[in-house]
């Protein structure tokens, strides 16, 4: 007896197969990406070329400007370099607006003109700092390397940027002062020796030899602060008047860059403590009790 077995052929409907749908989606997405790249390949190349050229030109021009500023009387501040770099990137952006993005540069200029009033209100502090910094540098009111005192803060100007003037104080702290404040606030420019000066007061005995005592104070302080003092500025002894306990005076020292004034005062005070020609605090208090 012959038996015939029929195998029914089955077909899989891709619409009901999750794997088939995901493969179709991936294929459609990849086709769309390839098509987009083919359509915009020239624009992508132009965008990359313009960006690379702008970056190289900006770097070369910035280096050349820094060298040029060092040879001229103009202050070597980053604000000048940053303005030129910004102009280079603005020109590069204007170059690719029409061919890459299809935007007419004149349309952007018109839009900026309409929204300029609103932007000016929103960015008034930034604009004031930029204009203030540019004015400070052109008029040479403040230049990198100047030592200034403003609102009780003293330090050396390191740089003038878009928004801030960077000042480094003696302890190494970095102070960021808005340019608009420097433009509207009185500041004092001082010499290096004036910024480095620090004092230690003393009272000289009334019966002491003034000349000998003054030389001794200067020598003792100079030896104690030798590693902290400016080599060209030795300590100065100044007598300022008379008191009930003796002659009032102070020793003026000049701390070199990087030395904290308090450390120098500590070293000088320790060296002068116990000198027989000086009136000590304990003796003053004893005399007050006796009287």
Q: How would you sum up this structure in a few lines?
A:
The protein has 291 residues and is an alpha+beta fold. The chain has nine helices and eight strands.
Summarize the structure in words:
- The chain has 291 residues and is of the alpha+beta class.
- It contains nine helices and eight strands.
- The chain has helices spanning 18-71, 78-101, 105-122, 124-138, 179-184, 192-196, 210-224, 261-272, 281-290, and strands spanning 147-150, 153-160, 164-168, 174-178, 188-190, 197-204, 236-243, 246-254.
- The strands form two sheets. The chain has a five-stranded antiparallel β-sheet.
- Strand 7 (236-243) and strand 8 (246-254) form a beta hairpin.
- Helix 1 runs antiparallel to helix 2 (78-101) and helix 7 packs across helix 8.
- It is elongated and about 105 Å long.
- The protein starts with 17 loop residues before the first helix and ends with a helix.
- The relative contact order is 0.07.
- Mean pLDDT is 78; it is low at 1-12 and 282-291.
Helix content: 40-55%
- Could you say which overall geometry the principal axes of the C-alpha atoms support? elongated
Give the distance, in angstroms, between the N- and C-terminal Cα atoms.
Answer: 146 Å
- Report low-confidence residues grouped into runs of 5 or more: 1-12, 282-291
Task: Annotate the secondary structure layout.
Blueprint: H1 18-71, H2 78-101, H3 105-122, H4 124-138, E1 147-150, E2 153-160, E3 164-168, E4 174-178, H5 179-184, E5 188-190, H6 192-196, E6 197-204, H7 210-224, E7 236-243, E8 246-254, H8 261-272, H9 281-290
Antiparallel strand pairs: 1-2, 1-5, 2-3, 3-4, 6-8, 7-8
Helix pairs in contact: 1-2, 7-8
């Amino acid at each position: 007896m012959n038996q015939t077995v029929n195998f029914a052929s089955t077909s899989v409907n891709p619409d009901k197969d999750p794997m088939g749908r995901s493969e179709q989606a991936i294929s459609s997405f990849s086709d769309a990406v390839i098509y987009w790249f083919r359509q915009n390949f020239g624009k992508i190349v132009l965008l990359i070329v313009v960006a690379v050229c702008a970056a190289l030109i900006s770097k070369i021009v910035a280096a050349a400007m820094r060298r040029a500023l060092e040879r001229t009387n103009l202050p070597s501040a980053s604000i000048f370099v940053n303005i030129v770099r910004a102009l280079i990137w603005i020109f590069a952006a204007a170059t690719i607006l029409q061919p890459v993005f299809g935007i007419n540069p004149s349309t952007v200029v018109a839009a900026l003109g309409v929204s300029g009033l609103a932007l000016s209100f929103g960015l008034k502090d930034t604009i004031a700092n930029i204009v203030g910094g540019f004015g400070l540098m052109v008029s040479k009111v403040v230049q990198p390397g100047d030592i200034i005192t403003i609102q009780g803060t003293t330090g050396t100007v390191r740089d003038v940027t878009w928004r801030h003037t960077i000042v480094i104080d003696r302890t190494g702290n970095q102070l960021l002062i808005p340019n608009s404040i420097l433009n509207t606030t009185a500041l004092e420019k001082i010499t290096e020796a004036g910024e480095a000066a620090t004092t230690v007061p003393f009272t000289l005995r009334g019966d002491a030899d003034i000349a000998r005592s003054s030389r001794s104070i200067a020598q003792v302080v100079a030896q104690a602060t030798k590693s902290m003092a400016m080599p060209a500025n030795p300590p100065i002894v100044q007598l300022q008047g008379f008191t009930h306990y003796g002659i009032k005076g102070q020793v003026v020292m000049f701390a070199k860059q990087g030395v904290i004034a308090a450390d120098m005062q500590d070293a000088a005070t320790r060296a002068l403590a116990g000198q027989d020609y000086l009136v000590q605090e304990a003796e003053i208090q004893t005399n007050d009790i006796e009287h």
